[in-house]
């Protein structure tokens, strides 16, 4: 591929915006199209500049199957940094990229999933030494991903499409992503939103048991660097190596215990909004008091993963820890 064309879904997001900027910065000659929900009150030119000088904007919603399919068929590489919780829009991307086969060029899909898939559903809030540690070097682990997991339906759709060989697929699976203050993000992303939203509806920041349960975290700069590395690989003329299950990358910058995490959340959220968060310290609660539905599992369980395959493919975690970044990441985000 000489200078490939790339379509990015979710290009204005917490992950998508720094990704668009880094990709254009490294490859000014590549033709990059950002699929955006709206121009957001800016001019098209201003938004293109904000996204690193992307070449084209296409306005549309993730629910517009035909539009996404058509656009995907016209691009060499599609990056989905917008949605992993449902099978759309990735089904439309796959349908579009498959059409390229008839014209003798294989479509490439880079999908961003999330390690919420891999929590152990513990309810104690304690570290569990016998919990499964998911490992991206073990293709059987990746084959165990199923539709009941948080990001299962999109992962399964991508893995199955990749397994047919019709398209080359890559899945980057970060854990909770933080570090937006270092990329100038105007939002906090899905991970922080879930945790802070849960705390806000409870009126306190929860942790359970002795709070030694482990959460995996990924710095957005480490993630975005890796996404560009994978995109470079997808752009190379050679066929993708290995099976689709071997191109699933588990990403982690660091691990944190829930009590330490909740302690910093409580301090920072109280500083930011003392009305919504009257206490500056977290509350030790039962599983039932840790949140609504699936969220209470996130808070009381362990998320254990290892990514030796991602490391070999070029993932190089070097970001500061979430405990060091949170104060800056959440500053001014709730006014
Ligand atoms: N942040 C994390 O902790 C984390 C961790 C693991 C995995 N992930 C996954 O990474 C992906 C991106 O997460 P993020 O934190 O960057 O989220 P985000 O900041 O909310 O960004 C989502 C992006 O998708 C766009 N979008 C949302 N709904 C849309 C719709 N219906 N039609 C068109 N565009 C739409 C948003 O556009 P607007 O700018 O117009 O809203 C934005 O560009 C998600 O799939 C998420 O599950 C995130
Ligand atoms: C939290 O409460 C539980 C149950 O009462 C107790 O076993 C645990 O030691 C407490 N954790 C801390 C860190 O105080």
Automatic annotation (TrEMBL):
Source domain of life: Eukaryota
Which Pfam families does UniProt cross-reference here? Epimerase
Q: Which InterPro entries match?
A: Epimerase_deHydtase, NAD(P)-bd_dom_sf, NAD(P)-dependent_oxidoreduct
What does the record give under GO molecular function?
aldehyde dehydrogenase (NAD+) activity
List, for all copies, the residue spans of the domain called NAD-dependent epimerase/dehydratase.
Answer: 6-236
- Spell out where the chain crosses the membrane: none
A GO cellular component annotated for this chain's UniProt record is: cytoplasm
Q: Which PANTHER family match?
A: NAD(P)-BINDING DOMAIN-CONTAINING PROTEIN-RELATED, PROTEIN YEEZ
Under which name does UniProt file this protein? NAD-dependent epimerase/dehydratase domain-containing protein
Q: Which organism is it from?
A: Neoarthrinium moseri
């Amino acid at each position: 591929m000489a200078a490939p064309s790339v379509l990015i879904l979710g290009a204005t997001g917490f992950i998508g915006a720094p990704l668009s900027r880094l990709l254009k910065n490294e490859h000014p000659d590549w033709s990059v199209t950002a699929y955006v929900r709206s121009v957001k009150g800016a001019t098209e030119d201003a938004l293109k500049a904000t996204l690193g000088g992307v070449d084209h904007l296409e306005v549309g919603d993730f629910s517009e199957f035909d539009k996404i399919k058509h656009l995907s068929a016209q691009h060499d590489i599609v990056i989905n940094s917008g949605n992993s919780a449902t099978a759309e829009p990735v089904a439309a991307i796959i349908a579009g990229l498959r059409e390229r086969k008839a014209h003798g060029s294989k479509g490439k899909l880079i999908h961003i999933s999330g390690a919420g898939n891999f929590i152990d559903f513990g309810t104690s809030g304690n570290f569990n030494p016998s919990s499964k540690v998911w490992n991206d070097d073990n293709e059987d682990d990746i084959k165990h991903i199923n539709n009941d997991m948080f990001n299962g339906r999109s992962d399964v759709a991508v893995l199955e499409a990749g397994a047919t060989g019709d398209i080359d697929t890559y899945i980057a699976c970060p854990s909770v992503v933080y570090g937006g203050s270092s990329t100038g993000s105007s939002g906090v992303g899905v991970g922080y939103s879930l945790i802070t939203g849960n705390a806000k509806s409870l009126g306190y920041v929860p942790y359970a048991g002795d709070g030694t349960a482990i959460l995996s975290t990924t710095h957005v700069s480490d993630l975005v660097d890796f996404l560009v590395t994978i995109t470079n690989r997808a752009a190379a003329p050679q066929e993708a190596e290995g099976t689709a299950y071997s191109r699933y990358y588990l990403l982690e910058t660091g691990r944190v215990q829930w009590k330490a995490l909740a302690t910093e959340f409580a301090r920072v959220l109280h500083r930011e909004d003392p009305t919504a968060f009257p206490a500056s310290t977290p509350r030790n609660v039962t599983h039932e008091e840790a949140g609504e539905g699936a969220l209470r599992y996130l808070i009381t369980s362990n998320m254990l993963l290892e990514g030796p395959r991602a490391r070999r493919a070029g993932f190089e975690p070097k970001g500061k820890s979430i405990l060091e970044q949170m104060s800056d990441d959440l500053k001014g985000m709730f006014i």
